[in-house]
Amino acid sequence: MNPIAETNRLILREFEISDAERFYRLNSNTEVIQYTGDEPFKDIKAAEEFLKNYDHYLKYGFGRWAVILKDSDEFIGWCGLKYTPEWDEHDIGFRFFQQHWGKGYATESALKCLELAKEKFEITRIVGRAVKQNAASIQVLKKLGFIFKKEMDFHGMEGIVFEYIF
Fold it and tell me: How far apart, in whole angstroms, are the C-alpha atoms of residue 23 and residue 44?
């Protein structure tokens, strides 16, 4: 394991091919991905291919990171940064298995990502996007200090863009 960062309860690390089965299960749960605009993976092989071809770590030095519980070494989801060159924009995202919702893991891991964005990657502005109906994600973004920027279409759903400036 190659840890990127740690919090009191969590380890953030780069994705590994061995995460494919858990990654597949996470992105196959319709409730988990209902507000993301993402399609579920067809099978574990598709998740494995995605992980093999995930190039953000090499291209930008950061990306979405696996979130692991320290006390059990369990993969519980992901959190991290993403750079979108066509918009010249960095965003933060997070996704967790349902049994780990409401435990503060999204906030805890995202706070660490904000710290890394500023101190390690010298990013000065980050956006967070959420579908209006996704109250839990909106609550996390507000808790982190993101400020409402604008409304937008998000894969055919009404969305909101928040902004965090260091």
Answer: 8
